[in-house]
Every structure is written in structure tokens, then in C-alpha cells.
Design brief:
about 120 residues; mainly beta; seven-stranded mixed β-sheet
């Protein structure tokens, strides 16, 4: 079983920075990717950034150039460095992991989320 715990959220002024952390415990046979999603009130949950087991990354268009996802080699900890924050970045941010069991079955895990609030 895998557990994900997010930290680093909080209140920040527009233009400021925050770094979110996602700590993984437990094991999974094969990690496909880890990523960050966010959900603002009244909006659908959206993918913010993702990093694959091979180190490839991708980002939502709305955060390109401002956010950076990174992690250690084993993806035990994954970070989301957020800069030039805007009020529209306000949301609950969730850490996720996608992988495979030894059997080859795909499986996903989600953290509890951390609140990010950007004031104007």
C-alpha cells in the first residue's frame, strides 16, 4: 500500500512563491508517474504537472514557466515549486502516483490535498 502526504501549502501574496512537497511511503512495483492536480471551488480537478519514472515532465499551459515539478531518483519525494503565483492559482493541490502492481494491473493513489491561497 502507498500513502502520499502533501505539505507546504498556505497563504501567499500574488507574485510570491511556495514549494509543495509530497512524501511517499509504502512501495509499489513500478511507478509510471507522479503528479500534482488542483481543484478550485466550482471547477473541475485539473492536472497541473506530472513527472514520469524516467524523468520526463509536462505541465498545464496555465502554469508553464512558473511551476516546476521535481523529485528524487526513486520519487520518494516529489516537489512542486510555484513562482509568480496568481490569485487564480488558489486551489486545493493533490499529489498523485500512478503505477503498476507486479501483476501488471494499473493502480493510482491520491493524497489528502493541501490548500494554496493566493491573495491579491
Amino acid at each position: 500500500q502507498v500513502h502520499l502526504v502533501e505539505s507546504g501549502g498556505g497563504l501567499v501574496q500574488a507574485g510570491g512563491s511556495l514549494r509543495l512537497s509530497c512524501a511517499r511511503s509504502g512501495s509499489i512495483f513500478s511507478i509510471t508517474s507522479m503528479g500534482w492536480y488542483r481543484q478550485a471551488p466550482g471547477k473541475e480537478r485539473e492536472l497541473v504537472a506530472r513527472i514520469t519514472g524516467g524523468g520526463s515532465t509536462n505541465y498545464a499551459d496555465s502554469v508553464k514557466g512558473r511551476f516546476t515539478i521535481s523529485g528524487d531518483n526513486a520519487l520518494n519525494t516529489v516537489y512542486l515549486q510555484m513562482s509568480s503565483l496568481k490569485p487564480e492559482d488558489t486551489a486545493v493541490y493533490y499529489c498523485t502516483i500512478s503505477g503498476r502492481r507486479y501483476s501488471g494491473r494499473n493502480i493510482d493513489y491520491w493524497g489528502q490535498g493541501t490548500q494554496v491561497t493566493v491573495s491579491s
